[in-house]
Amino acid sequence: MKLSMRVLVSGFVIALGALGQSGNPTPGPTPEGNAPVFLDNHRPLNPKKEKNPTTRTVTGQVVDDSGQPLDGALVTLVDQKTKERHEFFTKKDGRYKFEDLSFSVDYQLQAKWKNLMSEERKLSQYDHSPRIVRLLEVTTPEGAPPPSSEAKTDKPKP
User: Fold this and answer.
1) Domains along the chain?
2) Which terminus of the chain, N or C, has less C-beta within 10 A?
3) Nearest to 64 by CA among 111, 24, 32
4) Residues 91-144 pLDDT 10s
5) Residue 111 belongs to what H/E stretch?
6) What is the DSSP secondary structure assignment for residue 144, as one 8-state letter?
7) d(CA 152, CA 104)
8) Parallel, antiparallel, or unpaired for β 131-137 and 56-63?
């Protein structure tokens, strides 16, 4: 038992000596006095799997015949299952946004500006896009003058 222990220890000492003489520097402080840092752990980089979205968003813009954005247009989103209505008034840029919409429901989208309406647009439950963009164009019926953006004022008759 003592002999095998001596052989084991001497073999270990010889192995350490051979490593020290191989010419490879042993890790230690760098000339600047900092310890070396090993950042590579030799594992492949696995990107995190993105989770599938649980809701969708519909955004867009309300424009007139010439493509100009309409300020103050009323955009209505109707849940076709429950008939619940959500409304949004556009700002100067004519943009609207509805968030947290279910993937399992059909929706109907329509814009109204003054006495004009856009065509109805459908959002299908079979469209699994998380971000949907719809342009709603409010057109003037042919032969009718476009409504003015200024409020009408009645002048009193003398």
Assistant:
1) 56-137 (2.60.40.1120)
2) C
3) 111
4) 999 999 999 999 999 999 999 999 999 999 999 999 999 999 999 999 877 645
5) strand 107-113
6) S
7) 45
8) parallel
